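Re: beginner question about structure tokens

> Can someone show what the tokenized structure looks like for a real chain? I only ever see the sequence side.

Sure, here's an example I had lying around. Input first:
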Amino acid sequence: MTTAEMKDEAHKWRLDLARQANNRGWQLAEDHGREPEYHAEMLDAAHASAWLWSAVGNEINRMRAQMLLAQVHALVGDGARALAYASEMRDFFVGHVDTPDWELAFAHVIFAHAAQVAGRRQPYVEAYALAKQAVAAIAEDEDRAIVMKTFAQVPAP
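And the corresponding structure tokens:
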């Protein structure tokens, strides 16, 4: 195997690990409500995903990893860190005209959750209203159902 082939294989391997960490983090986040011992694995998966995407991904991958980090930190009660991740992620997705409807909804939902956990009432209420509008605007039922799994974890104001 040539050096170029070895580098290509290593890149593919890292991409696969990034996907696995991301998928595991979201799986644990969607199943939230379990005992605190799952929190460590959820945090580890989210941080591993972010680290791997920073090495092998593009800007979208890194912002999606920020989205997962924001959600996971909100779920474990770390509002300040959740809000920091959520703010950067939401600014990115809101600022891009080509953001898919489901991803824009996720950005608002997760920002609302982070703001709520951080005790930031006004941003929470505003983001929650934007999230409701964005979820209602999702064209595909399947995409809306996926976003709703996360939105259901955010208490209504």
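Each token stands for a local structural state, so reading them left to right follows the chain. The chain has one domain: 3-151.
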